[in-house]
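Tip: read the tokens left to right.
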């Protein structure tokens, strides 16, 4: 059983920054970050293939969020810059073990095998 533990969430003002971390108990093929705001569907935010480092971002965060990894520590990061109130959500880390992510499927949660418990990001105006 793969365990994922997120950290780094918090409350910031608009324009601020946060760095989310996701520590995993083992290496995975692809790691993704998702978010879900109250009353809204879960949204795929970013993903990274651990072998090769290719990354994917949803349009609303391009240029503001950066996903990265420390393979030696089985940890994935999501750096959030220029935060907006609409970024407020619970952020979840997810791991895929079967095959790499692609631009066509990285947002689809059904392809991920394991999920963390989430970390809250709140952005005030």
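Filled-in amino acids:
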């Amino acid at each position: 059983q793969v365990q994922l533990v997120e950290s780094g969430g918090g409350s910031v003002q608009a324009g601020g920054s946060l760095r989310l971390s996701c520590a995993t108990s083992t290496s995975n093929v692809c790691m993704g970050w998702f978010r879900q705001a109250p009353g809204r569907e879960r949204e795929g935010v970013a993903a990274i293939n651990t072998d090769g480092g290719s990354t994917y971002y949803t349009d609303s965060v391009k240029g503001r969020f950066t996903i990265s990894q420390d393979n030696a520590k089985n940890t994935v990061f999501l750096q959030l810059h220029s935060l907006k109130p609409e970024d407020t959500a619970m952020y979840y880390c997810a791991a895929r073990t079967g095959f790499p992510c692609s631009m066509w499927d990285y947002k689809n949660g059904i392809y991920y095998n394991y999920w963390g418990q989430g970390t809250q990001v709140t952005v005030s105006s």
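The chain has a mean pLDDT of 95. The longest strand covers residues 89-96.
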